[in-house]
Design brief:
Elements lengths: L2 E10 L4 E7 L4 E4 L2 E4 L1 E3 L2 E8 L7 E4 L1 E3 L2 E4 L9 E4 L7 E6 L9 H7 L3 H10 L8 E5 L10 H11 L14 H12 L2 H9 L2 E4 L13 H8 L4 H17 L5 H6 L1 H8 L3 H17 L8 E5 L5 E7 L17 H9 L8 E8 L7 H14 L5 H13 L9 H15 L7 E6 L5 E8 L8 E6 L9 H10 L2 H13 L7 E10 L3 E8 L2 E12 L2 E12 L4 E2 L4
Parallel strand pairs: 11-12, 12-13, 15-16, 16-17, 17-19
Antiparallel strand pairs: 1-2, 2-6, 3-4, 3-8, 5-6, 7-10, 8-9, 11-21, 14-15, 18-19, 18-20, 21-22, 22-23, 23-24
Helix pairs in contact: 2-5, 4-7, 7-10, 12-13, 12-16
Length: about 550
């Protein structure tokens, strides 16, 4: 008996943790004396081991056994033991985040096309004991690419289907089984596998987890749902996401309340269990209110802690052109409940979305203009043009769902106006294949005690076409920003109740950002992956934040 994937360290608090595994057959999985039986769907076997009784502020090495035999760590492990580290007594918390990781070989051609892998470089840094370790890693979407799989997965698809000649999805993932190939391909890299075994993981899905432009508009959705391949694709996407990514986002209390997890543990027949999960996945797409992919986690002291609120900005959209919303009313009520209505004080708020809330100002105005004309501001013909531009240029961020962006600024205003406002509100995002830090301030509410920043990091590993770099530089010019702002106003677009500027960036290399929060202080480290000989390394690009009310740029 062997591990097929994992272990993945998922939830960790002062005394508890969860560890996820996929095995190659039915087994009893044991970690630190805690056991769980595997359950299966579609011929694959999984377990989530719940661990209790950990010492606060401790580092505990662990192994994984299957039916009493050691399955982890592997005999050829060169990275050191896998450990569970409970939160630090001093309240310091470090979160590393980013998005968009393509699977590709680590050979000269792979490095030439895709560059070094920031997650591999992070693992190498940790194994070498170079710098402080993150307390968690947040993966902000496109963990797998169902619409653009690696050459290795493509070969498996061709071997299975003969290339699906004539189909527009001939080279794409089609069902649950094929989704498992993506995770095998992406999560078995030795360095990444060790990293995931020793740093708690949080995950959100984005469009490439299903297909590019997923739910960008009602026009796109009507087209996609009419395709003969849609049902198997969307069921495979949601079901596999629930198993491989979402399940581990949940705390032990949330697991106890999760009806789908209860069904996986209680249904005895394998086929019935798989059918249940498939029905859940189909309903999740048909009725977004039937489930929730957003989640939150609290870190640190209850009186002056950190809250991560990770908002699903892909699955719960409302797409009617005259009332577009990035998240529907049901989902937004949940966001409010865990921010402005939270019963626990929030000293630092990490508000995460796979898609940036705040874009470069020029792109922001372009998306506002496009949403307006796509909704009919300049008539039916312009609406059709606007829809083509929306899909062709991926104009689907919060700026193109203006009602929702207004909701965000109103939420921020309520937070900073409270009796005990957060010291910082750091908005964490990925998606856009470039990285930047934006400084923001609300125009209607003073907030001298609360820093508001947009932190965007993308990609972990993905080539950035030259035209994206050119477009970013063009849209970042003052002239283009002014022209697009005027164009948006001509289409009836109102300004949002906030202003911002890109303080640093954009950068276009593979990398990762790390946020460090401690007491009243917060800092952001920007690292980019470099190839030194055959070693993938992270090099510091910027350290920025509130330690002494200053920002320090270390390298360019």
């Amino acid at each position: 008996m062997e591990l097929r994937l994992g272990p993945l360290l998922r939830y960790v608090d002062e005394t508890r943790a969860t560890v996820w595994v996929e095995t190659d057959g039915p087994a009893e999985v044991e970690v630190l004396g805690h056991r769980a039986r595997t359950w299966s769907v579609h011929g694959h076997h999984y377990a989530l081991v719940r661990i209790e009784g950990l010492a606060p502020d401790s580092i505990t090495p662990y192994e994984v056994t299957l039916d009493g035999s050691t399955a982890w760590p592997p005999a050829d492990n060169s990275y050191g033991p896998s450990v569970i580290r409970t939160p630090r007594a001093d309240g310091t918390f470090r979160l590393t985040f980013g998005s968009c990781r393509r699977s590709a070989p680590f050979d000269p051609q792979g490095f030439k096309e895709f560059g070094p892998d920031a997650l591999v470089a992070l693992a190498e840094r940790m194994a070498a004991g170079d710098g402080e370790l993150p307390d968690a890693v947040l993966l902000l979407g496109d963990q797998v690419y169902a619409d653009d799989p690696s050459d290795a997965v493509l070969q498996r698809l061709h071997d299975k289907h003969g290339g699906r000649q004539g189909s527009e999805v001939a080279d794409e993932i089609g069902n649950f089984e094929e989704y498992t190939w993506l995770y095998d391909d992406s999560w078995t890299t030795p360095a990444v596998r060790w990293l995931f075994s020793t740093v708690p993981l949080c995950m959100l899905l984005d469009d490439h987890d299903l297909r590019d432009d997923w739910n960008t508009s009602m026009t796109w959705r009507r087209w996609a749902t009419a395709q003969p391949w849609w049902r198997d694709r969307v069921v495979g996407a949601y079901a596999s996401y629930w198993v491989y990514q979402h399940l581990g986002n949940l705390s032990p209390e949330q697991l106890d309340r999760d009806s789908t997890y209860h069904a996986m543990l209680s249904i005895e027949d394998d086929d019935e269990r798989a059918a249940y999960l498939d029905r859940f996945a189909w309903t999740a797409d048909e009725d977004p209110a039937s489930c929730r992919w957003s989640f939150y986690r609290d870190f640190g002291d209850a009186s002056r802690g950190v809250r991560l609120v990770a908002v699903d900005s892909r699955c719960s959209r409302h797409l009617e052109p005259d009332e577009r919303a990035m998240v529907d009313a049901h989902e937004w009520e949940w966001v409010r409940r865990h921010t402005v209505e939270a019963t626990r004080p929030i000293h630092h708020l990490l508000l995460a979305s796979t898609l940036p809330f705040l874009l470069a100002p020029g792109l922001h105005h372009l998306e506002g203009w496009d949403e307006a004309i796509s909704s009919g501001a300049w008539g039916p013909r312009s609406a059709r043009i606007g829809e083509k531009v929306r899909q062709g240029m991926d104009l689907e961020h919060w700026a193109s769902f203006r009602k929702s962006l207004d909701d965000v600024t109103s939420l921020l205003a309520e937070l900073v106006s409270g009796e005990d406002p957060p010291v910082s509100i750091l908005m964490l995002s990925g998606d856009v294949h470039c990285s930047y830090l934006a400084e923001a301030w609300l125009t209607d509410v003073p907030h001298p005690g609360t820093a508001i920043r947009q932190l965007t990091m993308s990609p972990f590993r993905n080539p950035v076409p030259r035209y994206i770099r050119w477009a970013n530089h063009l849209l970042g010019t003052r002239l283009m920003t002014a022209l697009l702002h005027k164009l948006a106003r001509m289409a009836g677009v109102r300004d949002v109740a906030a202003e911002w500027r890109l303080a640093h960036g954009p950068w276009f290399g593979n990398g990762a950002m790390t946020v460090t929060l401690s007491g009243e202080d917060w800092t952001v480290d920007v690292d980019h992956a470099e190839l030194r000989g055959d070693r993938q390394m992270l090099e510091r690009t910027l350290t920025y934040g509130r330690l002494d009310s200053s920002s320090t740029r270390l390298t360019s």
